[in-house]
Amino acid sequence: MTSPLISVKDLTLRFKTDEGLVTAVNNVSFDIAPGEILGLVGESGSGKSVTAKALMMLNAENSVYDDASRITLRLDDEEIDVLSLRRPKDMMVVRGGAISMIFQEPMASFAPAISIGDQMIEQLMIHSDMTKVQAKEVSIEMLTRVGIPEPAQRFSQYAFEFSGGMRQRAMIAMALSTKPRLLIADEPTTALDVTIQAQVIELMKDLVDEFHMSILFITHDLGVIAQTADRVAVMYLGNLVETGTVRQVINSPAHPYTRGLLNSLPKLDDLEAPLTPVPGDIPSPLDRPGGCVFHTRCQESGNLAEKCKTQIPQYSTDSANHHVACHLATEVDQA
Ligand SMILES: Nc1ncnc2c1ncn2[C@@H]1O[C@H](COP(=O)(O)OP(=O)(O)O)[C@@H](O)[C@H]1O
Ligand code: SF4
Ligand SMILES: [Mg+2]
What we know:
34% of the residues lie in helices and 23% in strands. By secondary structure, it is an alpha/beta fold. The chain folds into two domains: 6-242, P-loop containing nucleotide triphosphate hydrolases (Rossmann fold), CATH 3.40.50; 257-334, no CATH class. Magnesium ion is lined by residues 48-49, 186.
């Protein structure tokens, strides 16, 4: 078995705020293999973006990492302990070097007053030994690869001159031009209409095949994950509650929260049917429930309810790569 490209182990991350310490990520562990697309799914506020930013050391100044947290990036000739990086020069490896990130709002990735082309050239010259002429050539080639018409002309335009879908493509071109080993795509299709969303997903899949990179694909939509990812990690209030292959998680969801998310998807064979969102609100991260983090919304705890309120469920494994943190699963294991 090849070693994972990146391993996240016991990641716990809190933010100092005026109201106290907010736990945004709690004891999260996962690996991403070379060439693998891992989908990270969960409602808004569950800690997806904060987890992603941890991989690039991009969290705000008020973040506090628990001492046990480890993020290990394995490149050809070295292992990098990401959370111990301190010097800006060293951090470049995870910021635009081996790891690139694309965001929901592409305007955030582009400086408004610099042309798209100049930004692409700058990015390439920071992360490689290319000359300006070579960097321009590669940038135009990347704009072509992501399907931007007349790339040589588009190259000298500004972000505001691009439509939403084209801007998304330009952002992908810029993120991929440095040939990162891991692309983090944080809700990259949420703001796009359905047709363009499908095109962007296809494009990303093609590029993964071509460049053999890994992707951490973040979304609140399990439907998008089903089309895109190899494996899925489901996050709730800072905890990973279930991980497995797309087939395992979508066809046999083991966690009540995952089942709730799946039930809330529109049914293709009955578009008139009412959507059933997961009932109840996510508790405040300042006031995380004890026991199982999902117990305040779980409708399946039944006669385990008392245990769910007081005891934290451990990960059970119903197969080597399907993990779930729920007392229901553990009870079955023991039966
Ligand atoms: N700089 C910060 N200071 C305080 N809290 C923060 C900060 N950044 C994120 N958070 C909190 O961390 C939690 C997770 O946020 P986020 O990762 O953005 O969620 P998601 O991407 O799943 O919607 C939220 O409760 C959010 O308010
Ligand atoms: S541990 Fe209990 S409360 Fe938590 S998801 Fe499982 S059944 Fe529901
Ligand atoms: Mg987010």
